[in-house]
Prior knowledge:
Layout: E1 2-3, E2 9-12, E3 19-23, E4 26-32, E5 39-45, E6 48-54, E7 59-60, E8 63-68, E9 76-81, E10 84-86, E11 93-95, E12 108-110, E13 133-136, H1 155-160, H2 162-168, E14 172-175, E15 179-181, E16 184-186, H3 199-202, E17 215-217, E18 226-231, H4 242-255, E19 259-264, H5 272-286, E20 290-293, H6 300-304, E21 313-316, H7 321-324, E22 336-338, H8 342-351, H9 358-365, E23 373-377, H10 386-389, H11 425-443, E24 448-452, H12 486-501, E25 524-527, E26 542-547, E27 563-568, E28 574-577, E29 586-592, E30 604-605, E31 608-611, E32 615-622
Parallel strand pairs: 13-14, 13-24, 14-19, 19-20, 20-21, 21-22, 22-23, 23-24
Antiparallel strand pairs: 1-2, 2-8, 3-4, 4-8, 5-6, 5-9, 7-8, 9-10, 11-12, 15-18, 16-17, 25-26, 26-27, 27-32, 28-31, 29-30, 29-32
Amino acid sequence: MAMGAAGLEFCAGDFYPLGATRIGKNVNFAVSVPGAEKCTLKLCFDGKTAEIEMDETKRFGAVFAVKVKNLTQEFTYSFLALGKEFTDPYAKSVRGREIFGKPSQETVGTLIADNFDWKGDKNPGRAFEKLIIYKIHPRGFTADESSNVRHRGTFLGIIEKMPYIKKLGVNAVLLMPCVEFDECMSDETLNVPVYTNDLKNKGSFHREKSDEMPVRVNFWGYGAKAEYFAVKSAYAADTEHPEREFKTLVRAFHKAGIEVLMEFSFPDNVSAGFVSDVLRFWVSEYHIDGFRFINMPVPDFCISKDPYLANTKLIASGWDETKAYAGEELPRRKHLAVMDETFEYTVRRFLKGDEGMVNAFSECHRRNNRKSCCVNMITDSNGFTLNDLYAYDVKHNEANGENNRDGREINYSWNCGREGENPGRKIALLRRVMIKNALIALFTAQGVPMLLAGDEFLNSQHGNNNAYCKDDPLGWLNWNSRGIARETTLFVMELIALRKEHRVFRNAEILRLMDYVSYGCPDLSYHGMKAWGPDFSYHSRCLGMLFNGGYAPARNGTPDASFYVLFNMDYLDHDFDLPLVNKAGKWEVVLSANSAKALAPGDICDRTIALPARCAIVLKETE
C-alpha cells in the first residue's frame, strides 16, 4: 500500500476490466497504453489534483492498473503517457464537451451514477421482420423552433415527441451517433466560422465566430474521434447527468413498445475486443436493442458470434453467412440484418422510369436471406430527403463550403420537370404521387423498412445531399411542413398499419415463387398488363406482384388476406388484367398513389383496372 498526493492510498490494481470500476469504496483504474514504459493517473476531486504514477509493478502487457482506496467522492480523471494527456478510451462518462460545436473543450472521464431506477424495464424483443424503423438525429430531430418542444435538440426533446412517434406507428427508432464524439473538424483550407449552437441556454439559434483555426461541425458524428462508452452530453438537457437522461429515453421508448437501435462508426484501427466491449456495455448498461454499423473494421464473425449479443439486433452492409453460424444451428430468431444501397438505388431507378429495371426491382422487393434479414430504405441521412428526391436532379451543396464538390454525384433522383421549390401545381401533384410510389415500394417489400425522420412530412434540405456539417435549420427537421404534408403523413401511417396487420409483407422466410403447399397459386407471383404474363423486357416499366395470403398464416393457422401491388412507372396510362387467388373473389382498392385519377380506397375492381401513368396501387382480395 502506498500513500500518494492529496492523502490518497493506492496499490496495484486489477488489469481487467479496462476503465474505471467502483469496487465498494475503492475505484480500480486500468488503461491500455501500448509502447509506454509508465503511465500516470491524474485525479481531480474536492478542488484538489493528485497524480499517481503507474510503473512496471502496475503493468501487465500493455495494461497499467492501480486501485485507489476510499475514493467515495465525485471525481474526474485522465491519464498521462508518451508525452501527452488523454481521456480514458473506456471512460463510461465524459465531461468537458457540454456545448455542441465549441472547439478546444478539454475532456476528462468520470463514473456513472449507479442509482437509476429502470422500473422493471424490459426490451420489447420483437422479431426482426416485424420491425418498422424510424431513423432520428438526436439533436436535429427537435433542434428547430418549429418542433415546439421545451428541451430542443436533446434526448428530453425526443421524449416530448414520443406521442407523435407512437401515433406514426413505427416500433423501432435508429439513433444516429450519440456517443461522446468530437464534432469540431479543423480545416485550414476552408473559410468557415465556428458555429456554437447553445439551444438550451440561448433559447434560439446562435452563431459565435471563433478566433481559433476555422472548423466545420461534424453534425452527423460519423468518423469523428469519440469516447465510445460515454453518452454525448451536448445532446442532454441535463449536461451534468447525460447518462440518466439517455436511460430515461430508452425506458420511455420501451414502455411505448418501441425498440432503440444505435448507429456506430468505429475507426479502422480498432480491435475486435474493443468493439465487443463497447456493444456489450451499451446492451447491459443502457438496455439497447440493436446496432447498425456504418463500417465494419473488424471481422464480422467476431460480432455475429458473440454470445452476449445473441439476442441483440445487428445491422451491417453485409455478413459472411458461412461463418456467422458455422457449425451451429440457426437461432430461433434472426438477429443479423443486411443494409446496403441495393434496394435504395434499384427502387429509385425503377420508379423514375429507367429502362431495364423491372427484373432488378422484383428481386430486391422480395429480397430476404436465409440467415439474416434485409433492411430496406429509400433515403438515408447521407443523400437527398424523400421530398428532395423528386424536387432536384442534381445536388446543391454550396452551403457546405466545398464549392459543391462534396456529396454523391449520382442520386437517381428526378425533379419531375423543374428544379427546386415552387414548381407549379401540375409538377407539385406529380411529385406527391412519386413520393407515395416510393413509400408503397418501401412498406410492401419483404425485409424491414427504414423511414428517415421527416420524410413523412416532406422535410427538405433544399437540394443538399450531404448535410453532414449543417448544424443549423438546413440540417434540422422543419416541423412547420407538417401542415401542408398532412396527406403524406396519413399515407405513411396507413402503410405502416397495413404492414403491421398483414404478414404477407413481412415473411420471415424467403418467398420461393412456387406453390409448394398446393394453394393453387404461388406464394408470390409476377404479372404485367396481362395477368400471369410478367414483362421483364428492357423497355418494360410495369410490374404487378400477387402476394398469396395462404403462405402467411396467423398463429392460429388462419390465412392472411391476399394482396396485389401494381406499379405502372410508364409515362402512359395502361389497362391491367387482375389475377385472382380465389376465382370467386374481387379486388378492393386499399391505397393509391394517385387518388385524383385512380380508383379511391374502398372501390371494387373486377377483372381489369385502368392505372394512370407513374402510379402504384395496393389492392386486397375480397369475396
